[in-house]
Design a protein that fits this description.
The protein is α/β, with parallel strands linked by helices. The chain contains 21 helices and 7 strands. Bound molecules: flavin-adenine dinucleotide and iron/sulfur cluster. Flavin-adenine dinucleotide binds next to helix 10, helix 12, helix 14 and helix 16.
């Protein structure tokens, strides 16, 4: 009797226990479907990277002697949706059982739950064997609390998994968090490490994708494609990161530069989110590098906080809030995205760089996503759902479980502060401190009023002024409201009028 086992495009983990034994009666099913290319408008590189990774895993599994049923996007038999293709495969192989790994996205979890409910053969969902935490672990930890403090979750994870802890059960170095040491801007030294990722020529695959009719945006870069194809390449990427970038990761974690788009980040999110790499091995390798004296504690801790802390935590937020999280919009923002989200053509140098990089590489750093693009969107009042779809489409690492809480919760405060303790917004002063963008910008970073004034400035004061009822009671907001109250009413009015003028010409900024 044949068992069909479905492997989704973000389940590219060749170490899964499924593959430990060869069973002649197990057929692995993988499919490239328009259902998955089309649920949102995707960056070209994201579609290429996932399909290329799927094809590579299928190749490796076959080479190891497993049976694989693979449907390419252009196959005549491909009916372009999971249920339709599964129906066909069950019939073709006369399958007696169906199994799948737990999907990470609500959309797919629901679809497969519905599908298996009506299936005449038995079915089983197994663990994807990837995350540290269960779906509901964060929810249990935060039971009854209004705010879900990441730091609380992170410390509990450090203790539970014995990460960066000393023999007495205390955090290594005596502190849980070295954020304070991690806020430097970058002046050009030390130099950004070389990009040691191998390139691939995916132009043939790209032609197949185009021929299928799937729409996309952004640069395909199909001939010089640098995202990892498989676990081996991802492990090399991890080693390269630890050796060349981790030592400086911490201090320049929040730095931005027009001269170096990668700086000291790992670029590992795609390999992690498609499960080519396991978060445990990444965390272990970084902790080991610190133990061997190859990286300072502030860097190792800063990095581990992102993977063991933020990554698992946002997943917990997602599963506790779905469905419904996608509709949250506490400020009622509704402006459409300006056209330069699709071409990067804006005179605001910080945004031109952050969006330009996103369109060119299908990637941007956390600080660009949060304090440039997200910051502007929140201050201007862009529609959070539209923004969420843009983030979900553009980034190589964007899968809803991680993208949605970051976009709607952390960056847009759309959930009213479940995840972020305060809105992450700033005027030009912060961007100027952390980057070299403002010096060459057509806008004046110091001015608040007038044609040449940096748009962030008036929008910043306008944001706090118009949301006083929601935000004034927030103790983390600090000096903003006392400062606003000290201003002449006419000055506040002028700032609000300037913000309205900015909003009226978003497309031409
Ligand atoms: P590094 O800076 O090297 O960090 C190491 C790893 O930590 C990352 O690979 C990632 O796995 C993890 N990590 C870091 N920050 C976060 C975070 N806030 N949440 C979850 N994991 C984190 N990350 C995604 O993986 N997918 C997304 O769709 C995504 N959307 C985002 C949207 C917004 C608005 C914001 C503010 C952040 C988003 N992030 C997302 C988090 C973060 O920006 C990316 O994980 C990071 O930039 C990936 O690049 P890197 O691998 O070089 O990261
Ligand atoms: Fe961005 Fe304003 Fe600085 Fe220009 S002046 S780079 S728009 S923050």
């Amino acid at each position: 009797d044949t068992t069909l086992r479905l492997i989704l495009g973000d389940q590219l983990n060749p170490e899964h226990s499924w593959f430990r034994h060869h069973h002649a009666d197990v057929v692995y099913v993988m499919m490239e479907v328009r259902q998955e290319t089309d649920y949102v408008l995707h960056h070209a590189q994201k579609i290429i990277a996932i399909f290329a990774g799927m094809r590579e895993l299928a190749r490796q599994l076959r080479a190891q002697g497993h049976r694989v049923h693979y449907l390419k996007i252009g196959d005549a038999r491909n009916r372009q949706s999971l249920p339709a293709n599964l129906d066909d495969a069950i019939e073709q192989f006369d399958a007696a059982e169906f199994e799948y790994q737990m999907p990470d996205e609500y959309r797919l979890e629901q679809q497969l739950a519905r599908y298996t409910r009506n299936l005449p053969i038995p079915s089983r969902m197994v663990d994807s064997e990837h995350f540290y935490t269960r779906h509901d672990e964060a929810e249990q930890l935060f039971e009854g609390r209004k705010h879900w403090l990441m730091e609380h979750f992170y410390r509990a994870m450090r203790v539970k998994h014995g990460v960066l802890m000393d023999a007495a059960g205390k955090p290594q170095g005596g502190k849980w968090n070295y954020d304070h040491d991690n806020r430097k801007s970058w002046s050009g030294t030390p130099p950004q490490p070389d990009d040691f990722r191998p390139c691939h020529d995916h132009s043939a695959l790209w032609l197949e994708i185009v021929a299928s009719g799937a729409r996309s945006f952004g640069e395909p870069n199909a001939e010089h494609f640098a995202w990892p194809l498989n676990r081996q390449e991802a492990l090399q990427q991890l080693d390269g990161f630890i050796e060349h970038a981790l030592p400086h990761f911490g201090e320049f974690q929040d730095a931005m530069s027009s001269r170096a788009s990668r700086l000291f980040h790992s670029l590992l999110s795609f390999a992690l989110n498609t499960k080519m790499l396991n978060p445990r091995e990444v965390v272990r390798a970084v902790e080991q590098a610190w133990r061997e004296g190859c990286a300072p504690l502030a860097s190792a801790e800063g990095f581990i906080r992102q993977v063991l802390g933020w990554r698992e935590y946002v997943r917990g937020v997602y599963w506790s809030r779905m469905p419904g999280y996608g509709q949250e919009n506490v400020f009622g923002h509704s402006l459409p995205l300006p056209r330069w989200f699709w071409d990067g053509q804006t005179g605001m140098r910080c945004l031109a760089s952050a969006i330009g990089d996103s369109l060119q590489h299908a990637h941007a750093h956390h600080i660009h996503r949060l304090m440039v693009i997200g910051n502007f969107a929140l201050l201007a009042g862009l529609d959070p759902q539209e923004l969420h779809e843009w983030y979900l489409g553009v980034y190589i690492d964007a899968f809803e479980w991680v993208e949605m809480p970051n976009t709607l919760g952390m960056s847009q405060f759309a959930d009213g502060g479940l995840l972020a303790t305060k809105p992450y917004v700033s005027s030009a002063a912060y961007i100027d401190r952390m980057s070299d963008y403002c010096k060459g910008c057509r806008y004046d970073r110091k001015a608040r009023i007038g044609e040449d004034a940096c748009p962030f400035n008036a929008l910043y004061w306008d944001f706090f002024s118009r949301n006083e009822a929601t935000l004034a009671g927030n103790p983390r907001i600090g000096m903003v409201y006392p400062q606003l109250r000290k201003m002449e009413p006419s000055a506040v009015q002028a700032l609000r009028a300037q913000a309205d003028a900015v909003r009226a010409r978003l497309d031409t900024l």
